[in-house]
Specification:
The protein has 458 residues and is an alpha+beta fold. It has three domains: 218 residues, no CATH class; 72 residues; 121 residues, Heat Shock Protein 90, CATH 3.30.565. It is built from twelve helices and seven strands. It has a five-stranded mixed β-sheet with strand order 3-4-5-7-6, covered by helices on one side. A two-stranded antiparallel sheet has the order 1-2. α11 links the parallel β3 and β4. α2 packs across α5 and α2 crosses α7.
Length: 458
């Protein structure tokens, strides 16, 4: 039995994929994406060309004047103006790409001000890598804007013109006898040298009409190619490098970790001062009073009063022990000694809302990661009980590919957000100190899903 290749199960998806690619190629001229890209280019190209002329003029004049003694100050000001203008042009291009294409190119963070004095502040922009990358973008984009505008305009104009040839022929030769060659041939405009091609019949006009299809397809994909090059330039020249981003994120995480440690120490000191220390002082005073009531060998004791003082001291001692235990539990929960799954199960058992727990954790994370995961789960489950109005919730924990993932779901009213100073914002800052992340999906009406990702090893 012979089976054709086209009918095999493997060939059918390939044939469907090829058909899908062909349809996507042919539909490009009429797709919304293509026309957004054309609109973006029509708006951004003049900005790029004008910005190039102004930036080059300012930088060239400034460089020429700085080598002279008389014009040094004016030359420096022109250089600074050229750098600022390049930064402004780059910012306009970034905003246009976001508004018209949905392309999000993050702006580089502002550079720290370390220069002192007037001359130092004037010289600092000249050493700014951010501003010189903007200059490089403006200079490199000029030939792209020029060549891309010419190519896009010519191909789109030619394709749209070819579509009108049957109507153009009818308008010029409506009274000509069908099948008879026209005495006034219509020239065929082409972006390439065509050797003075003319059409003389309506049939040739329809052939030119059919030629418009590949020309428009080429125009659409040429536009996408130009936009792709421009997007690549923006991503590589107008955004901070990965190392810069990483360094700034580490600096921010370090500052958060230092602030969090300081806040914890102050909280421990306050709890000890207001709680356990006060209890111990009360115990010492009560025992001192009891000793006085016991008296010496010559004075009689009051057993009832002594017993009452000892009972009070005993009660204060038990309360102090409980407060110290709670304080120690806040630093490192003892339930984590048996592992994170047991700790999460304990949290779920203590919740006012029924919580289903699924924990599949292989190798144990480091103690710091376990503590952060535990406190995140405790805060999220507490939020479910306090704010969500949910009737049920679930807590999932899994470890894979070096990452610990927590997922807390509830069927409450939704609307949860990490507002400034809120508990969720605090959790986001805490997980960020170990390169973790927190994601909240909580539409109005629910359900709410909060995902936490942490590295297994801090």
């Amino acid at each position: 039995m012979v089976t054709s290749v086209a009918s095999t199960p493997r060939a059918r998806p390939e044939r469907g994929r090829a058909r899908g690619v062909l349809v996507a190629v042919l539909r490009a001229p009429v797709s919304g994406r293509t026309w957004r890209e054309v609109g973006y280019w029509l708006v951004s190209a003049p900005v790029s060309l004008a910005g190039f002329a102004l930036v080059v003029a300012a930088l060239a004049a400034g460089t020429a004047l700085t080598v002279t003694v008389v014009g040094a100050v004016l030359g420096l000001l022109l250089l600074l103006a050229g750098l600022s203008l390049a930064t402004a042009v780059a910012g306009v291009q970034r905003r246009l790409a976001r508004a018209m294409l949905g392309l999000r190119v993050p702006a580089p963070p502002p550079e720290p001000r370390t220069a002192r004095g007037v001359l130092g502040r004037l010289e600092a922009p000249l050493r700014s890598g951010r501003k010189w990358r903007a200059v490089a973008y403006v200079l490199i984009r000029w030939p792209l804007a020029y060549a891309g505008t010419v190519a896009i305009a010519v191909t789109w104009f030619s394709g749209l013109l070819y579509l009108s040839y049957p109507a153009l022929w009818t308008a010029l030769h409506g009274r000509e006898i069908r099948g008879r060659a026209a005495e006034r041939p219509v020239p065929v405009l082409s972006p390439f040298p065509a050797g003075g091609v003319h059409i003389t019949t309506i049939g040739e006009a329809f052939l030119i009409f059919l030629l418009a299809v590949p020309v428009l397809v080429a125009a659409a994909w040429m536009t996408r190619g130009v936009i792709a090059i421009d997007s690549w330039l923006m991503r590589h020249l107008l955004t901070p490098g990965s190392l810069t981003v990483r360094v700034r994120e580490l600096e921010r995480s370090r500052a958060l970790a230092v602030d969090d440690a300081e806040a914890r120490l102050r909280r421990v000191e306050r709890d000890l001062h207001d709680g356990a220390q006060a209890r111990l002082v009360a115990i010492a005073m009560t025992l001192g009073m009891a000793r006085e009531k016991l008296g010496d060998d010559e004075s009689p004791a009051d057993p009832a009063r002594v017993r009452a003082l000892v009972d009070a001291a005993h009660a204060n001692a038990k309360e102090a022990i409980a407060e110290v235990r709670d304080l120690a539990r806040g630093i490192h929960p003892p339930v984590l000694d048996n592992g994170l799954p047991d700790a999460l199960a304990t949290l779920a058992a203590q919740s006012a809302v029924p919580v289903a727990v699924v924990a599949e954790i292989g190798p144990r994370p480091t103690p710091a990661i376990e503590a952060i995961a535990y406190f995140c789960a405790a805060e999220l489950i507490a939020n479910v009980a306090k704010h969500s109005g949910a009737s049920s919730a679930s807590l999932e924990a899994a470890a894979a590919d070096g990452t610990l993932r927590l997922r807390v779901w509830d069927n409450g009213r939704g609307g949860a957000a990490a507002g400034p100073g809120g508990g969720l914002a605090g959790l986001a800052d805490r997980v960020r100190t170990v390169d973790g992340s927190l994601d909240i999906d909580s539409p109005a009406g629910g359900p709410t899903v909060v995902r936490v990702e942490l590295p297994l090893h801090a």
